[in-house]
Amino acid sequence: MNRDPLLQRCGALDTASLSDALDSLGIAGGLAGLQQQVPGTRCCGYAYTVQYQPVSEHGGFRNAANYIDEVPADSVIVSCNGGRLDATVWGDILTHFASQRGIVGTLIDGVARDLDTVAQLGYPLFSRGRFMQSGKNRVQLKAVQVPVRISGVIVNPGDVIVADASGCLAIPRAQLEAVLERAEAVESTERDIILSISRGLSLEAARQLHRYDQPWLKAQDRQQGEAR
């Protein structure tokens, strides 16, 4: 289990709240199109980025996955294959290896195969889809631990990755504490709204009372706004 206190806080939050916090700071972080492939799984960790590039159809075996030997435990692998849907860069061997090494999840801007194995191991895998055709003779490793672009968002090595049933996002490392504070406030605001509704308040009144227009405000700031 990762003992990094910031990651522990981050892992307790859902991507919806974190996304609202990013929006409030004007930071683009949502990795649109990447979806949870194993129901009930989620991951949170520092990004280890992998960049692939295509080769000719008869380019031969390129050992494109050997990078994984160097991935630290508690990382989330962020694998960029340019959104390609016809050549997978993840399968059962990598899933077994990652699980044994304590790698906490994988995001793929592309597709994966051997999803039965991934599901049996309960490994958190997020991708654009699934397809059986191997990338071993179709892609090659270009670089690791470099910035990669996914859905218009630049993911840097060491950024914080959070992924759950709602989707995937990347949080710039330098902004993590500010994002966490706002995301925690968002969840607190939403709990207060739900409690007010359960006590008979209308949705409109509950949202106005608890400042749903700015849910990232801390409780004391929301209360000061109400007093004014």
What does this protein look like?
The termini are far apart. The strands form 3 sheets. Strands 1, 2, 3, 4, 6, 8, 11 and 12 form an 8-stranded mixed sheet that branches. A two-stranded parallel sheet has the order 5-7. The protein is built from 7 helices and 12 strands. It has 2 domains: 28-171, Ribonuclease E inhibitor RraA/RraA-like (Glucose Oxidase, domain 1); 179-227, no CATH class. Helix 2 (15-24) crosses helix 5 and helix 3 runs parallel beside helix 4 (115-121). Strand 3, helix 3 (92-101) and strand 4 (105-109) form a beta-alpha-beta unit. The radius of gyration is 20 Å and the shape is elongated. With 228 residues, it is an alpha/beta fold. The longest helix is centred in the C-terminal third of the chain and has 23 residues, at 176-198.
Keywords:
single chain; 228 residues; alpha/beta; Glucose Oxidase, domain 1; 2 domains; two-stranded parallel sheet; 7 helices; 12 strands
Anisotropy-based shape = elongated
Number of helical runs? Answer: 7
Low-confidence stretches: none
SSE pattern, N- to C-terminal: HHEEEHEEHEEEEEEEHHH
CATH architecture descriptor text of the largest domain: 3-Layer(bba) Sandwich
Question: What's the CATH C level of the largest domain?
Answer: Alpha Beta
Judged by helices, strands and strand pairing, the structural class is alpha/beta
Query: C-alpha Rg, in Å?
Result: 20 Å
Overall pLDDT metric: 89
- Whole-number total of structural domains: 2
Proportion in helices:
25-40%
